[in-house]
Amino acid sequence: MVLIIDTETTGLSGYPKDRVMEIGIAELDGDSVRPVYSEIIRYSDIVEFDRKYVNLDGSEGIWIYRNSDLRMEDTLNASKDVERVAAEAREIVSGREVTSYNVPFDFGKFLFPEPWNLKELCSVPYDIMGLATKRVYSLAEDDLIQDKMLQDRLLREREESYHPNKWIRSIDAYRALCPEDPMGLEGMRHRAVDDAVMEG
Q1: Report field, pTM of the whole predicted structure over 0.90
Q2: Pairing state of beta strands 20-29 and 98-99?
């Protein structure tokens, strides 16, 4: 039984420049995955934060607002602030095995530092991204991915990157490893709990 955490954040730099905007937690138990926690976090200063925010690529404004259906109004109208959500997350993960798709990002940049402080509460024995990348490339090299266009693209991207273990995006890993699409991806949003379930 493992908990999978996904965060939606203001950007990629991590704490203290960036903030967690939404957190989703799913539980993998045997072959079944179910959502267990999902919260948008209220920040009363988000309008000013967004106005001043500059991404690593030089673009302005909070990334998640442009790349999901999460809106500034959702942040302003959320019922819980970051201290409350962090406290609830600590209670859920305490004493458990947890992971994410890209542990150095979700945990290293956001969930281990303040105000989350998850480092001493749980164990993070593996990274889904590493496991999925290894499995997907193994299938691709053996010509076993059902979607041949996806298979060809993944191998081409790896070759063009000059990196033998180029990380595979979670959506591509899901499509390669779950061709039957148990989540019904057509209706899926880019939101924390949806991604946590998909990663599970």
Answers
A1: yes
A2: unpaired
